[in-house]
Amino acid sequence: MIVAVDGPAASGKGTIAKALGHHYGLPVLDTGLLYRAVGLSVLKAGGDPDHEDDALAACGFDDATLADPALRSEAVGSLASRVSVHQSVRDALVQRQRDFATQPGGAILDGRDIGTVIAPDADAKIFVTASVQVRAQRRFQDALSHGGHPDMDSLIADIQARDTRDMSRDHAPLKQADGADLLDTSDLTIDAAVQRAIALVDAQLEGRASGVIR
């Protein structure tokens, strides 16, 4: 059983993916962490995330990097979006993601191209989204909770820039996959969004079991 959860930054896809993993008893991979690890590795090496050779060289990062708290920062998130435009970087990380998806029992993966590239034959697909204002507010509250001093205008500009970069890149652009259900979390509580996600996945699984593939 493979479940693909895609969507833009701060849409809630990570929270939903973790909840689905708990509900179905499946391991979860935040694939964005892989790109964040590449971005952070480029930064530490003094390279240029917009330079493909520098980004590709950083793909050999140590697994321990995935536990680095710095990966969760807004700055590293922006770096991840920049290195992800390089096809060679995406190619270098594809097999790692597919191996996780096809492990015995299945898995939940969240990212931006899971349902379109990594696991196009996933048993269930969800595209999670929310308005730019709502996503910026979530980032704002998260930064405050960690003692930061965020600027709302900067957060909005960053999210819009990342959306544009992710949706317009030549390779594996962010988009709703064929057969994916849209889940807009703008006006939903976390619990409501999770329950809606479970209902959507259950419906897709039931549809497959009955031979109805959308």
Automatic annotation (TrEMBL):
Its main location: cytoplasm. It is found in: Cytoplasm. SUPFAM superfamilies: P-loop containing nucleoside triphosphate hydrolases. The keyword Repressor does not apply. Pfam families: Cytidylate_kin. The keyword Nuclease does not apply. One of its GO terms (molecular function) is kinase activity. Its EC number is 2.7.4.25. InterPro entries: Cytidylate_kin, Cytidylate_kinase_dom, P-loop_NTPase. It catalyses: CMP + ATP = CDP + ADP; dCMP + ATP = dCDP + ADP. ATP binds at G7, P8, A9, A10, S11, G12, K13, G14, T15. Residues 3-201 form the Cytidylate kinase domain. Keywords: ATP-binding, Cytoplasm, Kinase, Nucleotide-binding, Transferase. CDD domains: CMPK (cd02020). It is an enzyme of class 2 (transferase). HAMAP family: Cytidyl_kinase_type1 (MF_00238). Belongs to the cytidylate kinase family. Type 1 subfamily. This is Cytidylate kinase. The gene is cmk.
